[in-house]
């Protein structure tokens, strides 16, 4: 028997919504549309999804009745949603020179207690792709704190450690998916 994630269960509810806040969010946008969700992306205009990704999401939305909204206003984007999702501001393999620019650009998109409250729902869950920069306990976090004077980036420690946070459950689901891919590719 397959365990279903909260995101998938909520997608079955009419009008279930998810907002991706920050840098990227392409696959979440398309997957949410495939499940018929109210999908919202909140990011600076310079980071909006490309036309190809937007058109792919809109095509899925036409089939399922989903909606897609892309905005620069994170407060507006989270109003009434069931999930607020974010990820790191600098992806693996990107040059270290982009840190300063991304921090300046994305600080208004940090998932913090105020943004969670802006959903207007006490049941809104927080998700993250992991790893997360929510404190300065790890080596990279310490380095960021020394260079830029901040200890939290895309999410605050308060949100990351809150009862609303389900990023670890999400990560567990990824483990099962990866195992299935390995089994199929190894021919077992």
Describe the structure concisely:
The protein has 9 helices and 5 strands; from the N terminus they run αβαβαβαβααβααα. It is an alpha/beta fold.
Keywords:
188 residues, globular, single chain, 5-stranded parallel beta sheet, alpha/beta
Task: Provide the fold topology.
Blueprint: H1 6-11, E1 17-21, H2 26-34, E2 38-42, H3 51-64, E3 67-71, H4 74-78, E4 83-86, H5 99-106, H6 113-117, E5 125-128, H7 139-148, H8 157-160, H9 167-186
Kindly name the structural category. Answer: alpha/beta
- What is the terminal-to-terminal distance? 19 Å
- Our Rg estimate from Cα atoms comes to 17 Å
Largest sheet: 5 strands, parallel
Structure description:
The protein has 188 residues and is of the alpha/beta class. Helices cover 43% and strands 12% of the residues. The chain has a five-stranded parallel beta sheet. Helix 2 (26-34) links the parallel strand 1 (17-21) and strand 2. Helix 2 runs parallel beside helix 3 (51-64). The two termini are 19 Å apart.
